[in-house]
């Protein structure tokens, strides 16, 4: 745990008592603050009370004594409307911050030069975070990984030299971290997502930009420049005097890091040098993973990790659960769990990675559905549609072979049967839903775990080695 000493002797309201909220309560208390814990969910309030925290209805309290409101990232800050606790805080002139802001303040107080890598982007941030953490472990760092990828940041060990914090950040978390100042900041890409929480894509992109704009003096901002928003962001960072490393998997760069024929290449001052090879690394298959690997390599180079260690780390990376995870093979068919593909853009990366796909898709649909995926339809041998989106996706697929399976267990059974019967040399049964999970599963991890269990229960399925 990281004790939060910056609020010692002060009273702090914490709203939202899930994993990160409860961790914030413990960290603030350990650092000497008085905590008042609250949530709209009575069960969460009860858990906080059982953990020994003072709980209260913040609607009925005077906010004059509160030094800050620590808000959980799932609670609306701006859109579709600020949560009532945010309005109360603003009326009282009380700052509204998140748990990663508390971490940043502790780092500046106690170990301002300790390495801190922060990663964001619409797609790929979890894989990139896990890959960077893997590379730093291989390089001998005491590596602490957390944030949006799973472990609340304040549950990690405190910052110190020789220990690196590798932190995935959502736009919600960035919004609550006004003094965000990583030593290495990574912005992978920006495409339309979470508009319900940011109002417009322009505001969403502006929030993402803050992660790389805040890189501390002497640090490195790593920006994927294969979309227009990020190209503009990189240019603004240049003009602001930041050290910027541009990344592309689509075009060679005169200065920056790019991927060409399966090799990560660095260009600088007219010179070109090979950084690492990606060929044959199954956990980094596809153009999207090439971008993740190139950004991770740039971070490793910025931290002084050698090329040999970098190459060994890439080759030994096991991949991320639920993101292009190879969960089994039966005969000619490979089974791939991409449950984390919760929007069309993420699923496009998965579909682009294979040629003969038996595609399981559906769930709680997002704006635009799968209309943006039509260019990949020739790769789909058959689709198996589940959940609320099944009828909508059926209409979009049109003449592409498909069935409405409704449930994941039926989809897996039928896709496995059809892939085996196809005679295709490299058939792939791919779960990449292009949807949220909430209609049938509490989160994408549970959905992906269910897929893995169903696949591994099929007769004759063997692990991928």
General description of the model:
There is one protein chain. With 465 residues, the protein is an alpha/beta fold. Helix content is 34%, strand content 23%. It is built from 15 helices and 20 strands. It has helices at residues 19-30, 42-50, 84-91, 99-110, 125-138, 171-175, 195-198, 201-213, 228-239, 287-302, 307-315, 344-351, 390-397, 408-422, 444-456, and strands spanning 11-15, 34-38, 54-55, 66-71, 95-97, 116-120, 142-147, 163-168, 184-187, 220-224, 244-248, 256-260, 263-268, 271-277, 325-330, 333-337, 356-362, 380-386, 402-406, 427-431. Strands 7-8-6-9-10-11-12-13-14 form a nine-stranded mixed β-sheet, with helices on both faces. Helix 14 (408-422) crosses helix 15 (444-456). The radius of gyration is 23 Å and the shape is globular. The chain starts with 10 loop residues before the first strand and ends in a 9-residue tail after the last helix. The relative contact order is 0.09. The mean pLDDT is 95.
Which features would summarize this protein structure in a list?
nine-stranded mixed sheet, alpha/beta, 465 residues, 20 strands, single chain, six-stranded mixed sheet, 15 helices
Secondary-structure blueprint of this entry?
Blueprint (H helix, E strand, L loop, with lengths): L10 E5 L3 H12 L3 E5 L3 H9 L3 E2 L10 E6 L12 H8 L3 E3 L1 H12 L5 E5 L4 H14 L3 E6 L15 E6 L2 H5 L8 E4 L7 H4 L2 H13 L6 E5 L3 H12 L4 E5 L7 E5 L2 E6 L2 E7 L9 H16 L4 H9 L9 E6 L2 E5 L6 H8 L4 E7 L17 E7 L3 H8 L4 E5 L1 H15 L4 E5 L12 H13 L9
Parallel strand pairs: 1-2, 1-4, 2-3, 4-5, 6-8, 6-9, 7-8, 9-10, 10-11, 11-12, 16-20, 17-18, 17-20, 18-19
Antiparallel strand pairs: 12-13, 13-14, 15-16
Helix pairs in contact: 5-10, 5-11, 8-9, 14-15
């Amino acid at each position: 745990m990281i004790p939060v000493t910056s609020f010692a002797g002060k009273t702090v309201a914490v709203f939202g008592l899930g994993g990160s909220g409860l961790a914030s309560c413990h960290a603030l208390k350990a650092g000497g603050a008085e905590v008042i814990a609250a949530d709209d969910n009575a069960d969460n309030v009860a858990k906080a009370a059982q953990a020994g925290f003072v709980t209260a209805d913040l609607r009925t309290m005077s906010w004059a004594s509160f030094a800050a409101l620590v808000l959980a990232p799932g609670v609306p800050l701006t859109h579709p409307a600020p949560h009532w606790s945010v309005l109360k805080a603003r009326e009282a002139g009380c700052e509204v911050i998140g748990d990663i802001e508390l971490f940043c303040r502790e780092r500046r107080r106690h170990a301002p030069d300790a390495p801190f890598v922060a990663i964001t982007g619409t797609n790929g941030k979890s894989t990139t975070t896990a890959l960077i953490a893997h590379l730093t472990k291989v390089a001998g760092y005491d590596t602490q990984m957390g944030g949006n990828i799973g472990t609340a940041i304040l549950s990690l060990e405190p910052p110190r030299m020789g220990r690196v914090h590798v932190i995935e950040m959502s736009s919600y978390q960035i919004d609550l971290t006004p003094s965000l100042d990583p030593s290495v900041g990574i912005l992978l890409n920006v495409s339309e997502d979470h508009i319900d929480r940011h109002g417009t894509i322009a505001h969403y992109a502006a929030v993402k930009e803050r992660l790389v704009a805040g890189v501390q003096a002497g640090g490195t901002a790593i920006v994927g420049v294969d979309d227009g928003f990020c190209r503009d962001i990189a240019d603004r960072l240049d003009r602001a005097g930041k050290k910027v490393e541009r990344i592309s998997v689509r075009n060679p760069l005169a200065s920056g890091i790019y991927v060409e024929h399966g090799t990560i290449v660095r260009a600088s001052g007219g010179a070109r040098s090979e950084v690492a090879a990606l060929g044959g690394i199954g956990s980094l298959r596809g153009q999207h993973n090439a971008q993740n690997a190139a950004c991770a390599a740039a971070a490793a180079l910025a931290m002084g990790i050698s090329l040999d260690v970098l190459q060994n780390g890439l080759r030994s990376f096991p991949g991320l659960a639920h993101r292009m995870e190879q969960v089994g093979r039966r005969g000619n068919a490979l089974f791939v769990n991409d449950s984390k593909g919760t929007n069309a853009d993420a699923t496009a990366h998965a579909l682009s990675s294979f040629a003969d796909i038996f595609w399981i898709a559906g769930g709680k649909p997002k704006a635009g559905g799968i209309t943006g995926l039509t260019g990949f339809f020739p790769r789909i041998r058959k689709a198996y549609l589940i959940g609320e989106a099944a009828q909508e996706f059926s209409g979009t697929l049109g003449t592409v072979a498909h069935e409405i399976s409704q449930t994941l267990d039926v989809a897996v059974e039928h896709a496995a049967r059809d892939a085996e019967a196809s005679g295709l040399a490299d058939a792939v049964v791919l779960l990449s839903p292009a949807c949220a999970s909430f209609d049938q599963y509490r989160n994408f991890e549970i959905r992906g775990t269910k897929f893995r269990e169903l696949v591994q229960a099929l007769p004759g399925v063997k692990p991928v080695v």
